[in-house]
From TrEMBL, chains A, B:
Residues 10-179 form the Alcohol dehydrogenase iron-type/glycerol dehydrogenase GldA domain. It comes from the Bacteria. Residues 190-390 form the Fe-containing alcohol dehydrogenase-like C-terminal domain. CDD domains: BDH. This is Butanol dehydrogenase. Keywords: Oxidoreductase. Gene3D superfamilies: 3.40.50.1970, Dehydroquinate synthase-like - alpha domain (1.20.1090.10). One of its GO terms (cellular component) is cytosol. GO terms for molecular function: alcohol dehydrogenase (NADP+) activity; butanol dehydrogenase (NAD+) activity; metal ion binding; methylglyoxal reductase (NADPH) (acetol producing) activity. It comes from Eisenbergiella tayi. PANTHER family: ALCOHOL DEHYDROGENASE YQHD. InterPro entries: ADH_Fe/GldA, ADH_Fe_C, BDH-like.
Length: 393, 393
């Protein structure tokens, strides 16, 4: 186990009807002028919007609204939010939505105190300072884990480029998590969210750091719980307990508790960011295509087989083939593919309507034209990435 | 899963040599006048004391010292600490030790701002206020989990009575956890600590709340990790990785992450508090005697068998006996007893030199003379407790 620092002070307020307390909770944290940030019409359709407005008014809080956050959230809206915060003297950001909405608020929260263009912070040109407007959220989509994480991902649609930044001060101060708010999620979004959660677990699981037993076991627990509850949530979208388990997993998979003391990989997220920079594909769908293919690619590498087999046995309940651990690893990957398929997610780029035309460019971007490698569990060079992309085709 | 709130903002600073940064870390948190609290001579023998003093001086911090904390820490020392804090205008408490030292600091931290006697807070006569002196620690004994927990346990040796109180503000602001500092722990203390960690996991695991899959799995992971690493640490006290796993488990077993969304039991801690009120027995040793006996007692109760069998299968790797789940449960208990025995801990009260003379009094105290029950997984009445005590004899 490596040395590490870990701190996550986000207050998790979990359970039925908890969104009703949002006004009072904001006041406890000293809010007086709130910017309410959300996406499109879904929170208006399901009644959440009205509840939030009522709670803010009841608490006597001043508030402005900023709707319009889209998946792969855009820097243009972040810039707009920064202006509103300055003009209206906003002292608290309330995100109502999923990772895109929360990430938009996170970027804004530091952008307000930065004199230059907020893209400097997002792209890493400038490091974030110590000042930020606090962020809280009402979570409606278990997926990104942004409700407790210390980072955000924003796209500049004009370049195009999708990238992110982080700070220990970026974690939301509180997060309201009511599983009932996810009852109306369409099956495809539910499945994409679960794939994102599993990916966050696996990006940390696949490590070369030895002796990480406790964090491995928590990660295996997250994966097993998602695998068990995703089919239930798809079968019955109003299954409170399945939705609750998935919601809790989403947070714990990404608050970095399971990343403590280990090198993490993140090759698949890097690849997905490139792909979704060029194509309009849901983050979870991109990960559903890349992760099993990447694992398949690694199942031919002797040094990767033990961990792949461990996951197969402990998470996918494959019986260990002691004579041929590679077969065990491959059976685990097969079961992951089955879950993805049964959940209605794509397994190939062509299923997602994506061709081969950008493969060379993607591989170049990820390796700085073949001069670098990507990932740490198995450092992928340009040739590896091209092979993998063909496997994903 | 029940609704819940969870917040744990303690910063975990984990790894080799991390204690060397304690002065700088205290300054980051605004400390200027520190009270250094510790137990006896062990931190002087192993060099930790000198390192801490050096770090405090290097950082230019004023500090006073309060040694003399004993296991089952005493309110008399808490009172003395409160006086020192007031006289010397202390603004930060630094605990160097295990749960007893940290708990002493926690009680002091609220006592300073309470006008009456601190025992009012400890015994629950008065609720703690919103003001407290911040506490940080350098952990030397993985056991109580006080390094992230929101509660403390203090004894009044004159009554005698052992009780505790808590507050969301009671969690330490940071905790320095260097597994190397536990290399010199004697085998008996190592085993007692691990038993305490397992007990914290099990007090939450045994619940009647249905649908608590994710938290069950984390708890099972904690138990499996301790079971795997305790024999290694006993075999080779300088096994860094085994010590590191145990240290991490100790924190996660008691920061209440695994208690989220469920009713908890705590019968065994209640029983142990009574026993150690009358007899001089290490907390972990008391739990080693009571827990397997309690589980044995419950293995005759139809409604308790499924959870006992789940633990046996998932934690102790017992093969499920589908025809007779009770046998599965009993095999799990047998394996717990084997671990306890092999670790050098007692399995009966007589092994610990404790007779039967106080049984009636203990059962009376726990049930208010037979009018109440204790615990929630299986509410234990006075007769149950007497039966259990006979099983423990």
């Amino acid at each position: 186990m490596n040395g590490f620092e870990f701190q996550c002070g986000t207050k998790m307020i979990f359970g039925k009807d908890k969104e009703l307390c949002v006004g009072e909770e904001l006041k406890k944290y000293g809010a007086s002028r709130v910017l309410l940030v959300y996406g499109g019409s879904s929170i208006k359709k399901n009644g959440l919007y009205d509840k939030v407005i009522h709670a803010l008014k009841e608490a006597g809080l001043f508030f402005e609204e900023l709707p319009g956050v889209v998946p792969n959230p855009r820097v243009s809206l972040v810039r707009k939010g920064v202006e509103i915060c300055r003009e209206k003297d906003i002292d608290f950001l309330l995100a109502v939505g999923g990772g895109s909405v929360i990430d938009t608020c996170k970027a804004m929260s530091f952008g307000v105190y930065y004199e230059g263009d907020v893209w400097d912070l997002i792209s890493g040109k400038t490091r974030p300072g110590e000042k930020r407007i606090p962020v809280a959220d009402i979570l409606t989509l278990p997926a990104a884990g942004s409700e407790e994480s210390d980072s955000c991902v924003i796209s500049d649609e004009t370049i195009p480029m999708k990238t992110g930044f982080g700070s220990p001060l970026m974690r939301p101060v509180f997060s309201i998590m009511n599983p009932e708010l996810t009852f109306t999620l369409p099956p495809y979004q539910t499945a994409c969210g679960c794939m994102d959660i599993m990916a966050h677990a696996m990006e940390r699981y696949f490590t070369r750091t030895p002796n990480v037993e406790m964090t491995d076991r928590v990660t295996e627990g997250i994966l097993a719980t998602v695998i068990h509850n995703l089919p239930k949530a798809l079968e019955n979208p109003r299954d409170y307990d399945a939705r609750a388990e998935i919601m809790l997993c989403g947070t714990w998979a990404q608050n970095d508790m399971t990343g403590c003391g280990r090198q993490q990989d993140w090759f698949n997220h890097g690849l997905e960011h490139q792909i979704s920079g060029f194509y309009d594909i849901a983050h979870g769908a991109g990960l559903a295509i890349s992760f099993p293919a990447w694992m398949e690619f690694l199942s031919d590498k002797q040094e990767c087989i033990p961990k792949l087999a461990q996951m197969a046995v402990r998470v996918w309940k494959v019986e260990m083939n002691f004579e041929n651990p590679r077969e065990t690893a491959k059976e685990g990957i097969k079961r992951l593919r089955s879950l993805i398929k049964e959940s209605g997610l794509p397994l190939t780029l062509s299923e997602a309507g994506i061709g081969t035309e950008k493969f060379e460019m993607i591989a170049d971007l990820m390796t700085n034209k073949g001069t670098h490698t990507c990932g740490s569990f198995y450092p992928m060079n340009k040739g590896d990435i091209l092979t993998l992309l063909q496997m994903m085709a």
